[in-house]
Amino acid sequence: MNREDFSILNQQIYKRPLVYLDNAATTQKPQVVIDALNNYYTQINSNIHRGVHYLSQKATDEFEIARETVRQFINAKHHYEVIFTRGATDSINLVASSFGRTFLHEGDEILISEMEHHANIVPWQFLCEERGCILKVIPFDDNGELILDKLNELLTPKTKIVAVSHVSNTLGTINPVKKVIEMAHQHHIPVLIDGAQAVSHCKVDVQDLDCDFYCFSGHKMYAPMGIGVMYGKEEWLNQMKPYQGGGEMIKQVTFAKTTYNDLPFKFEAGTPSVGDVMGLRVAIDYINHIGIENIANYEHELLSYATERLSSIQGLKIYGTSAQKAAIISFNIGNIHPSDIGTIIDKLGIAVRTGHHCTQPIMDHFGIPGTVRASFALYNTKEEIDSLYEAVVRAKMMLE
Length: 400
Ligand code: C6P
Description:
By secondary structure, the protein is an alpha/beta fold.
């Protein structure tokens, strides 16, 4: 699908065609996104919200159009609920820090899940250390599905926030986040969704989900690195203390007292990555043009095909067998170390990720050091999955 838009894929690695299956780490960028960056730096580059001069105003206008593009993409109610950050990690740290400093006190509980990326664990642990809060964890079963009965048990009057991933970057599980949000809201507890692995694979509607915060990165959805989004409901953002102090986030500064700017600027201290925002806007247009449903259906076809092919390899075990899965397959073969497989298939031109994928608690759950992870995007093909299959069979023969 639209493979011709990604010229990076046309290269040879070790004299073999590149088969790029590390899309959960970062996707490649279509030419229109690269052109948008080039256009910004050759035609527009200027700081925003500051200058009266033409270029500054143009850059500001384009930046705010991009915010509106994001608003529509996730169906936020207001454009000022869209905060630009450096990525999902930055977005989650923002919420943990600002929400935490505003609302959390000693003995309060934060509920996350066992399948979270470290970016949705460690910021909450900082809070626990600083504020004396308690981190609680919703377990998952051996298929990689959250045990929702346990969630009910873990919600207590002390729970102040629930933070779970929409899609697991290691297991591929698409979590029933709408249900999680409903359950938490019955107790008036806000919910943060880590959407880093979801936005480019399924339709996200933050009003329909009714989530309180939704965090994601641009670079996993065909946009440049260094740009991300934190969506937050107005009612929370208005109450929360700012994240970072600096230019743009203030109304008035004196040495005696500083007052803060309105949303969204209160949470956007300093010069943002304006060019990358232009790239994000074009990436969203690109996804919209193809249609997120078409992307989801095509990737699902790839996932089914890859699951069938890889499962036929004797001794290969797939981690994450939930009925609802995004196009991510994690696997091991017997006791072979995943990085040995990754190193051999790399020499055959296949790019996958090996290791713990920044989800060490998932590895602990299964008692393994890591997995080999193949993750697919709209430009991958069944022929590439055949190449993966053949390379894995070859690695197995060499390593067993
Ligand atoms: N996962 C992966 O290979 P950043 O690095 O800020 O763009 O995204 C962090 C992040 C947060 N949540 C989830 C579910 C993620 O998958 C990631 C990034 C990459 O799986 C890099 S570790």
